[in-house]
Amino acid sequence: MKGSPRLRALILIAPLLFFLGLFFVWPLITVITQSVSDPAVSRVLPRTADLIGDWDGEGAPSAEIQAAFRADIVGATDDQAVGDVTRRLNSSKSGFRSLMGKTVTAVRENPDVDLAEVDKRWADPAFWKAIQDNASPYTDSFLLAAVDMERDSAGSVVAMKEGTSANFTILMRTLWTSALVMLCCLVIGLPYAMIAASVTGWKRAVLLGAVLLPLWTSLLVRTAAWMIILQDNGIINQVLTGLGITSGPLALIYNRFGVVLAMTHVLLPFMVLPIYSVLITVPGNLMSAAASLGAHPIRAFLRVLLPLSLRGVISGALLVFMTSIGYYITPALLGGAGDQMISSVIAEYATRSANWSMAAAIGLILLVLTLALYAVYNRLSRDPIQAR
Amino acid sequence: MQKTHKISAFGPRLARAMAVGAALTLAGTAASARDLTIVSFGGNFQDAQRELFFKPFAELTGKPVLDEAWEGGYGVLQAKVKAGTPNWDVVQVEAEELALGCADGIYEKLDWEKLGGKDSYIDGGATDCGAGHIVWSVAIAYDGNKLTDAQPQGWEDFWNVEKFPGKRGLRKSAKYALEAALMADGVSGAEVYDVLATPEGVDRAFAKLDELRPNLVWWEAGAQPLSMLQTGDVVMSSVYNGRITGLNRTEGTNLKLVWNQSIYAVDSWVILAGAENKDAGQDFIAFSNAPENLSKLPEHIAYGLPVKAAAEMVPAEFAVDLPTYADNLAVSVNLDVDYWVDNSEELTERFNAWVAQ
Question: What one-character-per-residue DSSP string does A192-248 give?
Fold first, then answer.
C-alpha cells in the first residue's frame, strides 16, 4: 500500500510522459540516429561492404570484390532500397545516378558481365572509393559536412575546399542575426516593460495590449505587412521621397535590416512579458526607499531595479534568441540571398535533395549549440543577487 | 428464467444496433476514402488545368476531383511514398524528378496501351513512369516598351551591362544559371553540357557568374520576375515562358521573350507508388492528354504540347508562342536531364555557397 500514492501520481502524469516520449524523446532519438547512421550501402550491398574494406584504393578492385558487387545487385530486388544506395553514393561522388541505373540493368540481364565494359567509370578508383567510404553503417561525415569539414584520404578531419559549401558561414550568420534581434528586443523591451509595470489601470492595459495584440496575428500576415511597408514604393519610402528627405527609395527590404526589424517586432512580446512578470512582483516603494537613502535615480536603477529584473531579462533574452535561431519564413521573405538562416538549409536538404541525414546533422548541431547556450544562461540566472 | 428472457430479448436488439453501427462505420469509411487528388504547380497554369481537365473529368466520372499545388522538390515526394500510403495520386513533376523517382521506384509504371502508346509523344515525352504534359522554357524576357533602341538577343547581351544598364533577374538555382553563364561566355547551346561535364567548365561558369554578381537579383517563384519587369526593378530577367504570354494577354503588357538560347524541358504526370486512386489517376492522365482536350491548353497558357496529335490541333495564332513552334525550337537548348540527375546535389551545394557569399 505504501507505494500506491506514488503509483497513482505516476498514473496521473502518464499522459504527459506518453506525450513527451512520443513527440519529444522519440523524434529526437530518430534525428540523432539519422545523422550518424548510413545503412544504405551495408544493407543492400552486404557482400561488397564486407570485402571492400581490404581494397587498397589503387586501381580497380579485385575480381572477387567485383563479383561480390554483381551478386549484391542481382540479390537486391527492392528498387526503393537500391534508390537509397544510389542517392547516397551520388552525394559522395557525382555521376553514380546514371552509372547505377545503367549497371543495375546490365547486371540483371547478365550477372557475369564485365563492369568496366558496362561503363568505363568502373575502371576509375574514385567510384569504388565512394562505395568503400560508405560501407560502414555508421559515419561522422554528415556531422562534419554540417560544419563544412570532411575526412581526407588519410582519414584526418580537414576543412572542405573553399566555395564548396557554406553551412558554417550560414550557421554563424544565424547566430549573429539572432544575437542582433535579441539585443534590439532588449533595448526596446526592457524600458517598455518597466513603464508597463510602473503605470496602472487603463494605461497598463493599453501598453500590454499593444504587445499582446500582434501575438494573436499570424506570423505570415505580420511578415507580409512589413513587406508592404518596407518595399521600394511602400509607405516609408513614399513619405521619405515625398518630403524630399531622400532622392530615391532606400533599400529597406531584401537585406539584413528588413530581417532584423521584422524579427524584432515579431519577437518583442517574448522579451517584454517575462521582464514585466518579474517587475510587477517588485514592491513599488523600493525606488523611493533608495532615493530616501540618498541614491541618485540612475544609481538606484542600476543597484536596485536592474538586478531585480535581471531574471526576467535573462529568460526573455533566452526565449528570443532560441526562437530566432529557428526562423525561416521572415528571412525568406524579407531577406536577400545573403541573409538566409540555417533553417532554409535544412529545408533545402529535406525537401529538395532528399538528403535527410544532412538535414538531421545540421539540426543536431543546432540543438547542441542551443543546449550549450542554455547551460550558460542557466548558470547566469541561478540567483543573480546571491551569486554576487 | 425472467432474467434470461430479458437478456435474450436484449440480445437481438443489441445485435441489430451493432449491425447498424457497423454498417454506419463501413459507410463512413467508404465515404471517407480519399477522392482522386491531383497536384500541379499552381498559379494561372493550374487555374487553366482546373477548367480544362479537372472539372470536366469530375463531371465525366461523376466523382469529385481534388487539386493541390506544390513547388517541386524531390524530397517531398519521396517522404510521401516512404510514409506508406501517399495522400496524393497524380502529380505533375519536372524531368529531373521524373528520372530520379522512376529509378528509385517511387512512381507507378504507366499502362501505355491506355495512353495511346509511346509513339504518340515527342522524344522524351513518354517514359515508363511519366506521361509528358507540357513543354516549357526558361527564356530571357524584357519590357518591349522600355527597351526600344536595342533589344537583347541572347545570354551574351544579358551579361552586357554597358549596353543594357540595370539589374537582371535570374532563377536561384544552379540549373539554368550555369547554362546561361556558359552561353554568355560564348559556348554554343549544343556544347553547353559537354563543357559543364568537365570541372574546368563548371569553374568557368561560376567565374562568369562572378562578373554579373553585383547586377543580379534572384527569384524563386515564377510570378516574381513578372512583377520585377513590370515595376522596372530589373531591365531583363529569366522567366518561365508561359507566364509572359499570359500576362500580355490578360493585362495588356508588352513583355517580349528571347527564344534564342532558351532552355526547354518536359513536365510529366506521374502516379505515386501505392496511391489509393491509381486506376482513376491513369484514366485522368489519359483524359487530360487526349489530343482534343490537351490542345485547348495553349489558348490559356503558352506551353508546348508533347502529344504530337494535340500539338497539330493548336490554332496557328497560339502556336507561334509555344516552345515547340519550329522556329522557336530551332534556336533553343534541350535541358540535359541526365546531367542534372547526376550533378544536381554537388552543384546545388556549390551554387548555394556561392550565392551566400
Answer: HHHHHHH--THHHHHHHHHHHHHHTS-HHHHHHHHHHHHSTTSHHHHHHHHTTS-SS
Chain A residues close to B349, C-beta within 8 Å: 164-165
- Interface contact A165-B231, CB threshold 8 A: no
Q: Which of A322-336, B28-42, B206-220 has the lowest mean pLDDT?
A: B28-42
How high is the ipTM of this complex? 0.74
By C-alpha distance, which of B324, B332, B146 is closest to B228?
Answer: B146
Q: What is the pLDDT of residues B160-171, one digit of tens each?
A: 999 999 889 999
B131 pLDDT above the threshold of 70: yes
Mean pLDDT value across residues A138-154: 87
Provide the CATH topology of domain A167-380: MetI-like fold (1.10.3720)
Is B167 at the interface with chain A, CB within 8 A? Answer: no
- Name the residue type at position B24: L
Q: Is B84 an interface residue toward A (CB < 8 Å)?
A: no
Domain layout of chain A by residue ranges? 4-34, 44-134, 167-380
Of B81, B231, B349, the CB nearest to A165: B349
Please state the pTM of the whole predicted model: 0.80
What is the C-alpha to C-alpha distance for residues A193 and A260, in angstroms, rounded to an integer?
A: 21
In tens, the pLDDT along B144-156 reads 998 988 999 999 9
A163·B352 Cβ contact <8 A: no
The superfamily CATH assigns to domain B32-135+266-330 is: Periplasmic binding protein-like II (3.40.190.10)
The CATH T-level fold of domain B136-264+334-356 is D-Maltodextrin-Binding Protein; domain 2 (3.40.190)
